[in-house]
Amino acid sequence: MNYKKEIILRGIKIIDIGFITAIYLLLGILLAKLCDRINGEFDKEKENKKPLWKILVEVILYLWFIGVVIYTVRNVVPLIPFPLDGMYGFNHLMVKEVTNAMAFTITFMYFQKYYQNKIENLLERL
Predict the structure, then answer these.
(1) Which of 77, 62, 46 is closest to 119 using CA atoms?
(2) How far apart are CA 118 and CA 47, in angstroms?
(3) Mind listing the pLDDT tens digit of every residue in the chain (126 residues)?
(4) What is the 3-state secondary structure (H, E, C) of the chain?
(5) How many other C-beta atoms lie within 10 A of the C-beta of residue 79?
(6) In total, how many domains does the chain have?
(7) Under a CB-based contact definition with an 8 Å cutoff, are residues 107 and 35 in contact?
(8) 100 lies in which domain range?
(9) Cα 84 from Cα 58, distance rounded (Å)
(10) How many angstroms separate the CA atoms of 113 and 83, rounded?
(11) pTM of the shown model
């Protein structure tokens, strides 16, 4: 076993995980802020005038939209080239974090203030 090569490969993998996480975090913040900008400011008074069933449908449809965004990002990120791919036989696409969009999902959901306010309002009404 070549320990030097193994150490180098594991170092590249650690760098790759950081690279992937940074991309997912950046995309999560940017897309969340874009969604908030498109949705505008949450108006609690206007929301409270809607029937409960309509709010539930809106929340479900928006969650569907979030799922589509997560799916899209999870399929786009592997297309972003990793600068150290191929060094010492390293394969960027074999790193599980490339297709695991958990960092994106958490960031995307956390930074969407409009959606958070909508959910909080829904919970208050239930």
Answers:
(1) 62
(2) 8
(3) 688 888 988 999 999 999 999 999 999 999 999 999 999 999 999 999 999 999 999 999 999 999 999 999 999 999 999 998 888 888 888 888 888 899 999 999 999 999 999 999 999 988
(4) CCHHHHHHHHHHHHHHHHHHHHHHHHHHHHHHHHHHHHHCCCCHHHHHCCCHHHHHHHHHHHHHHHHHHHHHHHHHHHHCCCCCCCHHHCCHHHCHHHCCCHHHHHHHHHCCHHHHHHHHHHHHHC
(5) 6
(6) 1
(7) no
(8) 3-125
(9) 44
(10) 34
(11) 0.86
Residue linked to tokens 């928006």 = 62
Assigned token pair, 104? 């994106």
The one-letter amino acid code at 74 reads: R
Residue recorded with tokens 């959901």: 109
Q: Which amino acid is at 62?
A: Y
